[in-house]
Amino acid sequence: MSTTTIAAAPAAPKVETPFQRFVSEFAASRIALFGLVLFLAIVAIAVLAPFIAPQNPYDLAQLDIMDGRLEPGTVGAGGFTYWLGTDDQGRDMLSGIMYGLRISLMVGAGSAIIACLVGASLGMLAAYAGGRTDSLIMRLVDLQLSFPAILAALMILAFLGKGILNVVFALVIVEWAYYARTVRGSALVERRREYIEAAQCLALPTRRIIFRHLLPNCLPPLIVVGTMQVARAIALEATLSFLGLGVPITEPSLGLLIANGYEYMLSGKYWISFYPGIALLVTIVSINLVGDQLRDVLNPRLKR
Amino acid sequence: MSAPTLEVRNLKTHFFTRGGVVKAVDDVSFTVEAGKVLGLVGESGSGKTVTGFSILGLVDPPGRIAGGQILFKGRDLATLPEAEMRGLRGNRIAMIFQDPMMTLNPVLRIDTQMIETVQAHAKVSREEARQRARDALGQVGIPSPDERLKSYPHQFSGGMRQRVAIAIALLHKPDVIVADEPTTALDVTIQGQILAEAQKLCAQFGTALVWITHDLSVVAGLADDIAVMYAGKVVESGPVAQVLDAPLHPYTLGLIGSVPSRNHRGEPLRQIPGMTPSLLNLPAGCAFRSRCPRAEPGCAEPPPFAEYRPGQHARCIHPHQEAVAA
Amino acid sequence: MTAFLLRRLIQAAAVVLVMSLLVFLGVFAVGDPIEILISPEADQFERERAIKALGLDLPLWRQYLVFLGNALRGDLGRSFVFNEPALRLILDRMPATLELAVGATVAALIIGLPLGLYAGLKPNSPLSKGIMATSILGFSLPTFWVGLMLIMVFAVQLGWLPSTGRGETVTILGMRWSFLTRDGIAHLIMPALNLALFKISLVIRLTRAGVRETMLMDYVKFARAKGLSPARVTFVHVFKNILIPVVTVVGLEFGGTIAFSVVTESVFAWPGMGKLIIDSINVLDRPVMVAYLMMIVLLFITINLVVDITYSLLDPRVRLEGKS
Predict the structure, then answer these.
(1) What is the third-level CATH fold of C88-314?
(2) Are A54 and A80 in contact (CB under 8 A)?
(3) CATH match of A25-302 with 1.10.3720.10
(4) Which end of chain C has a smaller Cβ tally under 10 Å, C or N?
(5) What is the pLDDT of residues C263-279, one digit of tens each?
(6) Chain C: residue whose CA lies nearest to A275
(7) Are C224 and B58 in contact (CB < 8 Å)?
(8) Where does the chain cross the membrane (chain A) (predicted)?
(9) Nearest CA in chain C to B103
(10) Count of other CB atoms within 10 angstroms of residue A17
(11) Can you tell me the ipTM of this complex?
């Protein structure tokens, strides 16, 4: 078969799958695409930190206390260039940030996923069961949302103590309500649609209706909320760690790195706090850029 | 002979949107003398409201007046600087809007909204301004105006609010009032009262009134002259009785035929087939030809706006010369 | 209006009750109250006595009633660290926090309203786009880090503003205030701006959205048709309508601002409730934590009530519904 026959064949009408359409709509915004690339790069750095970081900041053998608080670009005692300077322990800031990103992203994503599972289940339950279950769950949601996240998390950690798992737990507690509200909202709309009624008339099992029919339709808003909540969780974790209530010193996240530099700030040694802050900022902004565009693309109200 | 109060000549108001140029008003001409009423008639989207906003210089970007003249006592408003235009607005030329529920600011008291109008154009004290506001409310038949001045718009019914809007328009006894379907949103009985009120006041003050409406029966009872708009153009104009009894343009005829009372009992209502065309990229020639029962190849050329009978113009190459059989 | 107030007060009381139950459960049921409420330095005899005194040998529901009764009399326990009633400690530091939060709110309105107004009136100008882009940054920037950067630039590098503390204060009505002295104001600027950061972005966005929506309203066009000056149309007709949603949101945010002042106070060593609570958490001074939590809940409810009333004063439509 020659190439000419292929070219001569009538071009089949181009059918875009919803996913392809979603991809092309998302890519329409350059700045969102930039955010996505940035975010993926950050994730890659975090994942690959043990392999690409110049130094293992946890390995005390590699640290030289004589190299403490060196300015960015200084060459240390071991002939090693500290591009972003060192902290009070003589740790390379660049490596510290890479490892810190790991913790920050892990806590942010982990809490978001658990909160999403918990919240989405409760929201779905509220929408599907209705009645008293619904109003009980929604009262809880209202109560949760009316109380500032930072305070609730602060109190939980105050009683539980520091630790990565405790932070994740606290973040889940303050975030599940957003997911629950989102899922309940869209599930209630979908529930009234005829196709659900049709499914019920066919006596399909409830489980099947929920997972095959209701859930897929609640997914778009859930993804949007989820993206934004990851950014929020990362920022909140950093704040809590900065206040000394988050992750332990042995597993420093970006927030804790910034806190470590606080006392040296006043003597002009800005880099210990500055660079981890920039890393934190870039991470949050990149997620928000992606989230903004997702919201525009996935929002059915904005669809023509 | 002195210049008429308002003369619109070949007005073009276009909206320069991303999708192309929307010619909302494209060659509109009419004249209104002092104390007379012009009925500006057309379907929604025909450009009547934009014509009204053009007269007051209230067309917002991306729209602007792209051509023609709006002569107010001989002065061209289309080229008047904004500062001078503002001096005329609400003072010599006033407007009444369609939806009385939306025209009054919900968070300001009636007295605030009236006094600011008085003080925008007359250097008078607050007390004096309040006095004038009170008088204006009395004129439009609002009982106990003193009390009413202290109220907020939401405490009024729709008809009352429209009276307040009319009172505001009348504050400076303007030379021209543009009324944009001011009775459409009201009950029929209130509609009648407002119409009578408007007619009386305009005659009393010698105000030239441009009454924009889609309702031919309103025009029949109120107007002296009529201008029928279709797709941004005036397709027919003339003295009201003449146009309604013997329309030249097929579109005017169609409009008259669509009024239930003009039909005989038992006969099916006549309708104009099809829909108003999109104003974006209108084809050349007569815009009505796709719906016109008399369309012919010649209609693809832009028809001239010609005087077929004394004072009665039409934009059609094959007008109905016979009287309507009704 | 009275019926409306009464209903709101009953609702508020219900929320306080629920929150007190939650706090009680958090402290007394989940944690070990002996460990929480009795200083770790106490010896066996003191412990026994304290358990009796605190009624910890009673059943849980009786304990709750006792807790509630004490709380109603203003007794929320004594601080281990300061050996003072926890409530008094909190109240002593409240003016500093309120001052900071009010300063932040005022700053947010002063900065946010004009910028939002401009961005709404001229949505396509480059400056407006810049304002909106910056406001996105305001949402993304971690507050505590911005605080550090402010200190670094304005206190350390430029030396223009002091970095920590409240500075000189004046005592009025038995409370110390910073904003009445020059030195106090200098100390207040950076923390207030830092705390305002998020709110400035919020006010800009709300104002811009409100302006754009309101400008399309018939009554704005009618106001212009009356021949009013653009300034009058903008500042009276448009602005007054926008003020309602902005005031509501900013008011509701006030509670959040007080909560978030925990972070700002820690960064700037501002001696308010937030700094106290962080210090208390770090030394496990739990009665103070309980007292703080209850105070915050009360504050929140008060704020909600005040916002509702303000709202009804601003919007005549709401006011009338309340009356009839």
Answers:
(1) MetI-like fold (1.10.3720)
(2) yes
(3) yes
(4) C
(5) 999 888 888 888 888 88
(6) C145
(7) yes
(8) 31-53, 103-129, 149-174, 270-291
(9) C219
(10) 8
(11) 0.84
